Structures are given as C-alpha cells and as structure tokens.
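Figure 3 (text version): structure tokens given as input.
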C-alpha cells in the first residue's frame, strides 16, 4: 500500500490555488480525494483544508475550480479511475429532491442519480461521502447547517458517509431569519439567502466562506466548512489505514 500522510518529494505538485486563486505549494504527501459532480469547488475546498489532495470531475467546464479538474461524466470517470484515490466525495444533482422542484411539480423531470452513485461507490470499495439536500434518499445521513460553524447562512445539507459519521459539531443555532428570495437581507438581522436569484452577493460570499464563485455557482455550492469538518474525521481513518 502506498504510504499516505507523509512528506511530499520536491517533484510532487500540491493543490493548484488557494481560496484567493493564488497558486500554492505544499510539502506534505496528502491522501488523494476524488470530488465528483464537483461544481465550482465548495466541497473540494473543505477537503483541501482538511489535508487532502483534491481532483474534481464535472460534466460541465468549471473554470474557477481551485484544484486539478477533469471535464467528464462523473460516474464514468469514477468507474475507470476511482481505484486511484483514497476517498471519494459525490454531490449528484439535487434538483429531483429539492423543495423548489417539488413545489413546482417538476421533480420527475430530473434524474435520480443518488442510487447509481451509491452503487458505484460501494463497488469501488473506497471510503465515500454522498452529499445532497434534505429529502434526498441518503442512508443514515448526517445533517449539517451553517450555524453549526458560526456561519451566517443556514443551508441544511445531508451527508451519507462510509465509514458512518454520526455527530455534528453542535446543534443548529437559528437565531436570525432568512429573507424571502429576491429581498435584500439586513446583515445585522438576517442570514444570507443563497438560493435562486438572491440579493447581496458579497454578503452571501462572506456567509458561505467562498470568495471565488459567481452568483450562479454560489447558489449551487456548499460551505467549505462542512467538508472540512467531515474531511478531518476521514483523514484520521485514512492515516490509520496507511500505517
């Protein structure tokens, strides 16, 4: 087994860019994480901060993805290359399960990719994480909220993990209100609303802990704090297995 959690040699590249888009280098041998359906890199950034060497895969071009990126069908790429990674994260499209499409009655027009994603990840036999919105059919999911991390955004998300992670860092602390879509939030009274056509993009970026995304990318992202929390626990698992 190739050793992980060791120091890099000089010719081993680290992640491409920092949160501000500046190119960086590292002296650590990081475990490799595959970020499927990666979008613009909210999840990937959290795993990078937790200590992973991240590669993202998405069927759409992602010019602002902060790390190594492959434009490809996520499941096809994972089937061919998943064995090369230590951990696999997947964020299959959430539209089928979101409250917005349910209200509109259009859920069935969107693909159900959770089950085929789980089937593939189990077949690969690697530790994995599947992320999606409340209502998605995840097994024994951990629910995370921005307020658990002191962020000014709610943004509940579910995480199915193998190995299973049961406990959030703390309970939700909903002490503010979220304004309705399109209305400008009062930064002293409201949480940032980061869905659909939202107002005060700078506030949303600050609340999410993301400074490199467009408005559309931000609306589809998760705060890096979520996957940093999960990644730090998975890092312990990977490093123990490597010894």
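Below: residues designed for each position.
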């Amino acid at each position: 087994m190739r050793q992980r959690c060791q120091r890099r040699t000089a010719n081993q590249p680290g992640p491409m860019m920092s949160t501000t888009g500046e190119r960086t280098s590292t002296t650590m041998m990081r475990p490799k994480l595959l970020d499927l359906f990666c979008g613009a890199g909210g999840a990937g950034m959290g795993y990078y901060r937790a200590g992973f060497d991240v590669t993202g895969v998405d069927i759409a071009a992602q010019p602002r993805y902060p790390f190594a990126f492959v434009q490809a069908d996520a499941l096809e790429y994972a089937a061919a290359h998943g064995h090369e990674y230590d951990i696999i994260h997947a964020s299959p499209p959430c539209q089928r399960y979101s409250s917005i499409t349910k209200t509109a009655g259009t859920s069935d027009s969107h693909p159900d990719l959770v089950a085929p994603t789980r089937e593939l990840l189990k077949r690969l036999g690697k530790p994995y994480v599947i992320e999606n919105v409340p209502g998605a059919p995840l097994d024994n999911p951990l629910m995370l909220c921005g307020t658990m991390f002191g962020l000014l955004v709610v943004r509940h998300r579910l995480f199915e993990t193998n190995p299973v992670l049961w406990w959030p860092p703390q309970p939700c602390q909903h002490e503010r209100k979220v304004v309705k879509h399109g209305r400008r939030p009062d930064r002293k009274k409201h949480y940032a609303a980061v869905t659909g056509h939202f107002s005060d993009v700078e506030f949303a970026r600050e609340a999410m802990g993301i400074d490199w995304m467009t408005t559309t990318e931000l609306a589809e992202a998760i705060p890096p704090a979520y996957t940093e929390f999960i990644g730090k626990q998975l890092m312990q698992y990977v490093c123990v297995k490597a010894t």
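The longest strand covers residues 53-58.
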